[in-house]
Amino acid sequence: MGLVSLGYVSGSCLGALWVCRLAGVGDPRLEGSGNPGFSNVLRLHGRRLAAVTLLLDAMKGMPALWLAMGLGLAPWAQGLVGLAVLLGHSYPPWHRFRGGKAVASAFGVLLVLTPWVALCCAALWVLLAWRVRTAAVASLASAGIAPLASLWLAPDYVLVVVTFTALVLVRHLLNIHRLRHGDEPGL
User: Fold this and answer.
1) N or C: which end of the chain has fewer CB within 10 A?
2) Which of 3-7, 50-54, 78-82, 178-182 has the lowest mean pLDDT?
3) Residue 184: is its pLDDT beyond 80?
4) Is 136 exposed, middle or buried (0-12, 13-18, 19+ CB in 10 A)?
């Protein structure tokens, strides 16, 4: 239970808010899409701040996951710690439970638990973001491919990855609605 709590608390530290405050720029929750994440920071403040946001959000849950793996916890228990990181990012208590979409955090969690799945998803995200120029499409497709990639590359983690995918898809419901109506902002 302690590692799950550690995962949640570490996940609830939103990289975008720290980066924007330290850079002296506006709160990303008050501009653009209102999302405190990589894509909104990229649109608002450029590549450099977005890259640091991505790095922080991807790395923040890693210590808790390394501890879970080091203790020899079963894949499902490691998955609970990872899910706590994602829930912390999506629903941080000190920001009125209004957080990010958990894509960068999911990448970091998967990078620890299932590195090849994470790298496949990241490659697809980059390719789609470059071609389609819409972060939501890249994120949804990457999340959707993750369970299939885990079937092949990390079968012990399939249920864990399916759970992460479900959370990312739920966090993107508004984006799906905007995509259907042609209102989703591009990168």
Assistant:
1) N
2) 178-182
3) no
4) buried
Closest CA to 157 of 166, 148, 169: 148
| CA-CA-CA-CA torsion sign (152, 75, 126, 92) | positive
Task: At 25, list the tokens.
Answer: 């720029």
Angle between helix axes 38-45 and 135-153 (nearest 10 degrees) is: 150
Extents of the domains making up the chain: 2-181
Map tokens 């720290």 to a residue: 18
Report residue 67 as tokens: 């501890």
* Residues with Cβ within 8 Å of residue 166, at least 6 apart in sequence: none
- Let me know: does 141 contact 128? Beta carbons within 8 Å: yes
End-to-end CA distance of the chain: 39
The tokens describing 64, both together, are 């808790």
For residue 137, give both structure tokens.
């499409």
Provide the token pair at 132. Answer: 């389609």
